[in-house]
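User: Quick sanity check before I run a bigger batch. Here is a single chain. Can you write out its predicted 3D structure?
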Amino acid sequence: MHELSVAQSVLETVLDVARKRGAERVLSVRLRIGEFTLLNPEQLRFCLEVLAEGTPVEGAKFEIEIERGYFKCVECGHKWRPENESLKDPSLHTALGMSELTELLDLKCPKCGSRAVELDGGDACSIESVRLEVPGEQHAQG
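Assistant: Done. Predicted structure follows.
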């Protein structure tokens, strides 16, 4: 379950931001996770809530937005949404690079037939915003 390691990393970053800003509490954290990261939003939220216990992040609202991903043909530039459900198989996520995945799933551009395909979005996880309670300030954005 890589949700736990991602949650640990997110929490460390949020705590660092809170510490640097002199925040007493973290009110909310907004995350964007790509669909190709294969992170389960509910499992990630659960891990964040458990890890936040006893820290200034405890009780914060975790908002998680899913970013859709696309494939892009390197040859002709055509972009399309994947239709192959096997792309959501977690075993493919870490074991293979894009070239191996393209070959295994027989991915090719629907416009020109090229196998020179790359991901265009949907493969990252980022902290979009952090709302803090800082003494003497209105709710600060981090």
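The chain has a mean pLDDT of 87.

User: Great, the batch can go ahead then.
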